[in-house]
Amino acid sequence: MNTLFIGQNLISLKSVDSTNTFLLNLSNNEKIVEGTVVYAENQINGRGQRNNSWISEGGKSLCLSVLFYPKLDLSHQFTFNKYIALALVSSLNVLGVKSFIKWPNDIFVNDKKIAGVLIENSIREKKLQKSIVGIGINANNNCSDIESAISLKEVLNADIGMKELLSSLCQELEKYYLLFRNDKNQIQDLYHSYLYKKDCLVNFTKEDYQFSAIVKEVDDFGRLILIEKGVEKAYSVGELSFNLF
Ligand code: BTN
Is the CB of 19 under 6 A from ligand 1? Predict the structure, then answer.
């Protein structure tokens, strides 16, 4: 692994319920170094955002979790999430796959989801002490029967080496972590340069109400800022969905 700390301690598993749950339990029971990566070939009970499950195909999806001790003020909590999405997008772009960050944290290629992130935080004394960052990437999967999903193999028309993908992801996570530590404004700018549908008019649904609005930005609280008929409004995660299909 061509990194200083992310992935230097690499725990490779054949099969696990969830890499996030595994790393959470391990880090609760033992002192584990920051940057530890848990990678599993097969994940049988993967967890997604908002209590959804994350289905992955054994040996074909990249499933990993990374341990951070950010010791951050809570005001920077969502900027940390932005840094993760940015590193993930960048690692796909390095492979020649033009991808975007769909608010709040999904990675999209050609209007379909290619990767997802589940970040689980421990907060104590008003600081983000520990963060388990779980990443799932559709790598060599066949997603043709899922309208809203796509894999790297389908974009590139070639198989992806899982070890190469893992190592490129660890490198980008490390590179952007250093930037995150030094220059949060640049993280904000780069995140917005990859924000899906930025400055575009998009159809949304909020409860039973459908409306069109322009995507402006994502604020420091992780809220999506839209401009609807000239008026700016902020929406929290889970409050509205994009109408894409
Ligand atoms: C989402 O888009 O809903 C988030 C998906 C996150 C899936 C990854 S796979 C590795 C890690 N372990 C889990 O149980 N979930 C995350």
Answer: yes
Q: Tell me the percentage of the chain whose pLDDT exceeds 90.
A: 92
Which H or E element spans position 152? helix 152-156
How far is 203 from 214, CA to CA, in rounded Å?
A: 9
117 lines ligand 1 (CB under 6 A): yes
For CA atoms 31, 177, 23, 160, the dihedral sign is: negative
Residue 245 has pLDDT above 70, yes or no: no
Per-residue model confidence (pLDDT) at position 1: 83
pLDDT at 182 over 90: yes
Mutate to test the pocket of ligand 1, among 20, 22, 66, 143 (most ligand atoms within 8 A of CB): 20
- If you ran DSSP here, which 8-state letter would residue 195 be given? B
Whole-angstrom Cα distance, residue 79 to residue 219?
Answer: 9
- pLDDT value of position 50: 86
Q: Is the CB of 20 under 6 A from ligand 1?
A: yes
Q: Confirm if 12 and 31 have CB atoms less than 8 A apart.
A: no
The pTM assigned to this predicted structure is 0.96
Task: Output DSSP code: residue 139.
Answer: -
**Span 4-52, pLDDT tens digits:** 999 999 999 999 999 999 999 999 999 999 999 999 999 999 999 988 9
Mention the CATH class of domain 201-242: mainly beta
Report the CATH number of the 10-193 domain. Answer: 3.30.930.10
> E strand or H helix at 100, and its extent?
strand 100-102
- CATH 3.30.930.10 boundaries in the chain: 10-193
Residues of the chain with CATH 2.30.30: 201-242
